[in-house]
Amino acid sequence: MVGEATTAWNQVETLWYLIFTGLMDRTERAKVDAVFSMFQTGALQRQLIMTVAPIALKFEVSELRRRNPQHHVRRRMLREIGRLNAKTNDLAGHRNATVHTAFEDWGAAGIHAIGIHRRSRIADQPDKLRYLSELVEDITLLVYELDELRYLMIDWLRTPQEREDKKVGDASMRTLGILLPEDDLRMAKAALLAIVSQRKSPPPSS
Asked: HSE (CB half, 13 Å, CA atoms) of 45?
């Protein structure tokens, strides 16, 4: 289960990288990669994205009033980047505790790094396997949400003609009963969201 959490977290970091490349679409990829690799932790890379996003996704209120769809999409993406960054930061602490904890002795679980030893938040979990299972669910849901944002950004980067061509092509595929990757993602997210929402809902009052 620790491996599942680690694999899912790797997907989170990959998707943040892809979102950054989308924001920097007009910049040569080698330069984009060079800038991104200067920031060596996920937290620093997300701070970079939070700095770049308001510039790349700048929208005008006057265009929103004119119902300019591109400006509405920019505002939506900017909000999602902020929301998902906060969610990623929250889950990062749980993921780090999971990966760096000494699992040999759950009762005295601690975090070991560069000679520092401190008690892990996992040590106080009454049901550690459930904790890990729920963490995997939460990270996987974050992966789905980041992937949705990535698809939205890909569509935003298309020209109007490319967007129209894709819409026609997608309609034809669905008519043939062929599910698109976006459809699979939407269904998988809805199913997992139902599980997570039920878990996080307060118990009914007796």
From this structure: 21
